[in-house]
């Protein structure tokens, strides 16, 4: 099972590149860094911690 690499911030709608800077919670809610910082790295949907989303490396 792999992460769903969402393409936009769930708060502000900004575009998130697949290999770009984004933060996610354990439910894969996805936010840009600016929104995550403004929310003190706490997911507004589930209350979980927002952590850097891992990047996929081309094989």
Description:
- The protein has 59 residues and is α+β, with helices and mostly antiparallel strands.
- It has one domain (1-54): 2-Layer Sandwich (Herpes Virus-1).
- The chain has one helix and three strands; from the N terminus they run ββαβ.
- Strands 2-1-3 form a three-stranded antiparallel β-sheet.
- A hairpin with a 5-residue loop joins strand 1 and strand 2 (30-32).
- The longest helix is centred in the middle third of the chain and has 6 residues, at 33-38.
- The model has no long low-confidence stretch (mean pLDDT 92).
Specify the structural class. Answer: alpha+beta
State Rg: 11 Å
CATH architecture: 2-Layer Sandwich
| Proportion of strand residues | 5-15%
CATH topology: Herpes Virus-1
Integer count of domains: 1
Number of strands: 3
Main β-sheet: number of strands, strand sense, barrel status? 3 strands, antiparallel
- Global outline: globular
């Amino acid at each position: 099972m792999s992460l769903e690499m969402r393409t936009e911030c769930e708060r502000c709608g900004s575009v998130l590149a697949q290999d770009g800077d984004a933060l996610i919670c354990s439910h894969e809610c996805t936010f840009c860094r600016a929104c995550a910082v403004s929310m003190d790295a706490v997911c507004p949907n589930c209350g979980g911690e927002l952590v850097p989303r891992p990047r996929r490396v081309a094989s």
